[in-house]
Amino acid sequence: MARSFDDLVAEAASVPVTGWDFSWLAGRATEQRPSWGYQRLLGSRLARAESALDVQTGGGEVLAGVAVLPSRMVATESWPPNVPKAAAILRPRGATVVADTGKPPLPFRDNAFDLVSSRHPVTVWWAEIARVLRPGGGYLSQQVGPASVFELVEYFLGEQPAEVRGKRSPEQARADAERAGLEVTDLRFEKLRTEFFDVGAVIYFLRKVIWMVPGFTVDAYLPRLLDLHRLLQDGPFVATTTRILIEARKPGG
């Protein structure tokens, strides 16, 4: 028997959204994964590093899933609810979790790390990444690409201007990295399929990924959510996720 709109809304509006674990969406939404396997790549790079920094680590879930961490492993996080969550799973692995502002400067000395990594950074502070990397050190990042899940964004906000849809392009990532003095060694881009099966999944997603529909609340978008609930009776809401993989190297070393 199909669940009611009120039940789905009440559940999704009350479930905790700290961390970067999306397992609550199992059976309620699906997201196609990029072919490159970011966590596997991260593990291979960390296994060769003596010191590494994971920027905007979220709840630490991705980093904690890597088999071997370097002897000096540091992670930063700026969203207060995520800091204790990341610390709880990373400190037993020997990693240090640092609460920061999410803005430059990074609280580390120049040339401090062999590797800097970041999965889905909100903003990439390229000059800071270049500064804290030692000569010969590398940067690895999976980033959200242009107009990602914009079918959902525009369902709530209406059509977005071209300059908003075009942000976070692979070409811009390359230009920004090179402007900071880094050499881009790998750059990939993929479009992937995402499906939402009930309105609760959409509410949870927008509560967790807060920059998709800024200021989202159930009350503010209740009529639109009710329309979406009715729409979902005929099948999933399909959106296109875009992802960028970029690796770069600091010259020298």
3D architecture notes:
This protein has 253 residues and is α/β, with parallel strands linked by helices. The protein has one domain (5-249): Vaccinia Virus protein VP39 (Rossmann fold, 3-Layer(aba) Sandwich). Helices cover 32% and strands 25% of the residues. It has 10 helices and 8 strands. It has an 8-stranded mixed beta sheet with strand order 1-7-8-6-5-2-3-4, sandwiched between helices. α3 links the parallel β2 and β3 (72-77). α1 (5-14) runs parallel beside α9 (199-208). The chain is globular and about 60 Å long. The relative contact order is 0.18. The model has no long low-confidence stretch (mean pLDDT 96).
Termini distance?
Answer: 63 Å
Q: Which blocks of ≥5 consecutive residues have pLDDT under 50?
A: none
CATH architecture: 3-Layer(aba) Sandwich
Spatial strand order of the main sheet: 1-7-8-6-5-2-3-4
* Fourth-tier CATH superfamily name: Vaccinia Virus protein VP39
| Tally of discrete structural domains | 1
Give the CATH class.
Answer: Alpha Beta
List how many beta strands DSSP finds: 8
The proportion of residues in beta strands is: 15-25%
Oligomerization state: single chain
Structural category is: alpha/beta
In one word, what is the shape?
Answer: globular
* Radius of gyration based on Cα positions: 19 Å
Q: What's the CATH topology name?
A: Rossmann fold
Q: Mind summarizing the main beta sheet?
A: 8 strands, mixed
- How much is the average pLDDT? 96
| Residues in helices, as a percent range | 25-40%
Helix-strand pattern: HEHEHEHEEHEHHHEHHE
